[in-house]
Request: fold
Amino acid sequence: MINNLSELQKKDLKYVFHPCTQMKDFEENPPLVIKKGDGLYLIDENGNRYMDCISSWWVNLFGHCNERINKVITEQVNTLEHVIFANFAHEPAAELCEELTKVLPNGLNKFLFSDNGSSCIEMALKLSFQYHLQTGNPQKTKFISLENAYHGETIGALGVGDVDIFTETYRPLIKEGIKVRVPYINTELSNDEFRRLEDECIKELKDLIVKKHNEIACMIVEPMVQGAAGIKIYSARFLKAARELTKKYNIHLIDDEIAMGFGRTGKMFACEHAEIEPDMICIAKGLSSGYYPIAILCITTDIFNAFYADYKEGKSFLHSHTYSGNPLGCRIALEVLKIFRKENILKTVNEKGAYLKQKMNDIFKDKPYVKDIRNIGLIGAIELKDNLLPNIRVGKEIYNLALKKGVFVRPIGNSIYFMPPYIITYEEINKMLQVCKESIEELLKI
Ligand SMILES: *Cc1c(COP(=O)(O)O)cnc(C)c1O
Reply:
């Protein structure tokens, strides 16, 4: 155990069980105590600054301690901090819904609120099941999802997920969804080979749906990019085919934009790459730019109508979260949308994304340790070859080395990825990539 721990580190280790962490790892690398946020940077208790290259788990779009958001949250906290949302309405929620209809794909105009992404997924799955129950198809109880999918870690969400480290232990508790194959874009495939793979995946999905549609309530997807799978990117054509097939066979298409929504892929919502209109969209993460736990399930009027009846018919959607519709979260989200509009954020994302792509190629292409380089919008990933250093957790070591140089990345398996706040500058993109290159080469001793 390291013995020069600060008082706060000692207190933390005495009490806190950190998320997604083997606590024993802290014996070697104790948690950093972050004192302050400043734009792209996190500042620890010793005054060291770290570039937040993963937007603090993909949420922070406009930097830490953003002046504009700080201002509106202060105003809102002095006006109305919270009110029960079952009985009451308020301005920030109503205004937010109206603003969302202006940026969402057509048809999504009713909104259910919760306070985190996983609960939003739970609502979507329950709502889909209950919709079919109440519209004469009680046998439609199954869910389709994609291989390697991630939709959160509550029991229902794990059923439609397919990342073993999260799911394995809990299998006896889980209602498993039906998993389908996805055509991943991969630099090793020729155009013809990729086209063939796409055709195969679409055919498999079609065969499944034609055969089993009578039992299937919904299909859930992360649009275009599977984040937790290690930034795997698939084709818009597959997504478009999924929309056509689900529509034809009365299966809801649930579009989980929790990670990829709000400009990350270069479009406001990633499903726009396929020009589709899903039946439901889940949004969270960037919705409040990392300021507040808020999530929203956006649905069609058709779905809403299946629940609209006299109370005694028992068709209500009895699902609630205590903090649903919290005014602080809504007010922040409204400001986020305003920033998008006023500052032409999508243009910025595309310009910086193109630069990131170019620089990643300049630095990493043809390196002997690189297996694949991927990117879309302001996301980049460098996948390292397997088994570069047997028995070493390569991602963890690269995290440690880069952190010492003031760059915070959190690799997934062998993939080092970049999902920085949109305020990152071109020079900072250079530094982020350069530090990662040096860290990898230091670890590999080359
Ligand atoms: C993060 C994430 C979730 C879960 O959201 P939480 O707020 O962490 O519960 C669901 N789906 C996707 C695609 C995510 O990235």
About this structure: The first strand starts at residue 34 and ends at 38. The two ends are 30 Å apart (CA to CA). The mean pLDDT is 97.
